[in-house]
Amino acid sequence: MTLLDTVVMQGLDSHGVLTADDKTLLLSLELNARRVTAGEVLWQEVADVDLFCVVKEGWAYSYRNLGNGSMQILKIYLPGDIIGMRDFGFSRRLAGVAMINEGVICPFSYQQLFELFARSSSLAAGIIATTVRQQAMLTERLVYLGRYAAHERLAHFLYELYLRLKRINAVEENGFFMPLSQEQIGDALGLSAVHVSRTFSMLRDEGLVERDRQHVVLPDPQALARLVEFNDTYIDESLPPAFQNFLSLNRIA
Amino acid sequence: MTLLDTVVMQGLDSHGVLTADDKTLLLSLELNARRVTAGEVLWQEVADVDLFCVVKEGWAYSYRNLGNGSMQILKIYLPGDIIGMRDFGFSRRLAGVAMINEGVICPFSYQQLFELFARSSSLAAGIIATTVRQQAMLTERLVYLGRYAAHERLAHFLYELYLRLKRINAVEENGFFMPLSQEQIGDALGLSAVHVSRTFSMLRDEGLVERDRQHVVLPDPQALARLVEFNDTYIDESLPPAFQNFLSLNRIA
DNA sequence: CACTTTCAATAACATACGTTATGAGTCGAT
DNA sequence: ATCGACTCATAACGTATGTTATTGAAAGTG
Description:
Helix content of chain A: 40-55%
Low-confidence stretches of chain A: none
Largest interface: A-B, 61 and 61 residues
Number of strands of chain A: 11
CATH architecture of the largest domain in chain A: Sandwich
Distance between the termini of chain A: 32 Å
CATH class of the largest domain in chain A: Mainly Beta
CATH superfamily of the largest domain in chain A: Jelly Rolls
Oligomer: homodimer
Structural class of chain A: alpha+beta
Order of helices and strands of chain A: HHEEEEEEEEHHHEHHEEHHH
Largest sheet of chain A: 4 strands, antiparallel
Radius of gyration of chain A: 19 Å
């Protein structure tokens, strides 16, 4: 899973927007691979902003530790995701990031990113689009935290994971590996671990979710999607035609 | 209030990153002013993404209308803010935007934005930084929706508005004009209007917030900030030195 | 000026969720 | 095999917040 394989970049490439140089430049962000252990903290809140990362293997999450002793998990990162763009333009991290399980990440520097922007406005637009898409997921989470009940939050969370994992071929027969504890899920959904457990039981009783330890099966993904009125554009949609056209025009000019 | 007056662009300019051409280019986004009425919908959810806007006067908000009949307000836009970057890279709007009171907006097109990216990587970086900052506010809201009680959410919301309004000189003697109904505040904070009213009463009784219709006074802003442990970096901080340096290097090269 | 509509305060009641506690699996370390 | 540390399920109980309703004040409309 490289950045070239993401929806956004695939969209650009399939429309001939990316030159060979662009591709080399993009992949140069992933030259520096590093193995990381489960639970390893990539950076803490308030650390200096020095680098960004591409996740190659494993799951990570960004989080905030709060004054009242609780934690809010902001986002789950899967292979192919860029970590850290949240802090672009800030001198201190706004959130910590830690690995959930072991994996491989590719750090790259501020400078590499700026060089990329300077050399290719197509890639710049692509990176912005990628960042905006991550934000769209966060916005969706915000909506669920604000206006939906626990069972809808959990159903939405699981279905979103399901779609994202399907994109990277990590779903088999409607089942997937999910290394999150119920406490972590609660921290992501603004619920207590106890209530996450209750809610899982409820979804199980309704035949919507089966779970055994770290393996989750959605027997009928469509039913789950209907329950939460899932709109998948923000995950699956490739870049709009207008976007591609402008970029190829700019390239030629 | 123009884009050149925002924290991000001020930061770039004061470090000599922006050329005269850059400034002209940036201000060209604001050539096309239009007066809008209170309550006017700038665009609906699922509309085509054709343009973005700079708010010159008045308040606006982005929102989602939900299947369960409720609404979630995502963000309040004040003069100087860019509206619509949330949808960059999508063909359909992810959220509707409407004016709260009457005002003036400056629409600009996808094409204008791409031309700006192509002509100036400094401005591209600046626009990204601006977008990321807006997202930081949203992330902060998410944290409050997930892990804080009603009085903390409201206190945080009011204090954030206070800081943002202070930045644009719209605060006098710790008081400001706030054209939001309690229902709208509830839709922003994930609360019922009734509970917003209760919570206002509570904050009033504690001497933290005075309110008369659309006029709000924070008698002791610091006390309010302490209550919510407000971290103002994401609103007040200018761009980090490293950021500026890279950009001026790129410009010379 | 009447008339309606909107907005806000407050009360009474209902409930979803948090908190605390307990016991049963599971896993890794020794 | 034994132990401790996690993780999870479930129950009992408390509470913050939602819902519905009533009233009054303010603002818009003819």
